[in-house]
Amino acid sequence: MYKLFHWLWIPLLVVLLLLMIRESVIIVQAIFFPSPPMTMLGNLEMYQWTGIGIVIYVLARGLLRKNLSWLEVFSHELTHTVVSMMLFRKIHSFRAGDQSGEVSTSGSSYNRVFVTLAPYCLPIFTYFFLFFRPLIKADGFWLYDIFIGVTIGFHAICFKTQTGNYQPDIRSFPLPFSYLYIFTALLFNINTILVSYWSSKNIFTALWYSVCNIWEGLVAFYGLIF
Questions:
Q1: What is the pLDDT of residues 173-224, one digit of tens each?
Q2: Residue 38 has pLDDT above 70, yes or no
Q3: 49 CB burial (10 A radius; 0-12, 13-18, 19+)
Q4: pTM of the full predicted structure?
Q5: 3-state helix/strand/coil string of 132-162
Q6: Could you tell me which of 75, 92, 133, 198 has the fewest CB atoms within 10 Å of its CB?
């Protein structure tokens, strides 16, 4: 019965994923082909230091190899923990080792999916830095954005290496449900991060922007069906 519940959510996840893809296309168009045209690279310049940070992490990753495995496991379990706390679940234990980790929580079964699948799509370190970005002076953005890029590089590699059918978290639900949820949530977070760099936005207004666009898309979809 529990797995049947998640199978029933798959059509909605498909719709949400399509809405996220549509929104991604709109955002990419706004970045590369702004109206009116600005420069040859559009608005891409605002992401240049973040891009440098991503490259720095990829190139310097080998220097962290002694503790990198533990750090990746730690971030995975920390994400479980942070989302559990946000959803008012009780934390019983936390363990992060070099090869494996575990977080024990208790609470409503209805929000378990958000906790279980969060480490595969929620870049918590990136969001942490973005929350404080509005407090940084404009002349310090370049250095701060490099740090943000480093976190994006870290999370991108974590998501790539940790996502797979072998993960008990992902197998906790029907596989189509798990992957649809992960890809949809990942696109939502990517869109939110990109929009948070716009001059009229920050991470808070970007989150609201993304949520509003999802709602408007769902309303439009409902109008087409009914």
A1: 999 999 999 999 999 999 999 999 987 788 888 988 888 888 888 888 778 7
A2: no
A3: middle
A4: 0.90
A5: HHHHCCHHHHHHHHHHHHHHHHHHHHHHHHH
A6: 92
Please report the DSSP string for 75-128 in residue order. Answer: HHHHHHHHHHHHTTPEEEEEEE-SS-EEEEEES-GGGHHHHHHGGGT--HHHHH
Structure tokens at 202: 């920050």
Measuring CA to CA, how many Å separate 76 from each of 16, 42, 201? Answer: 25, 35, 29
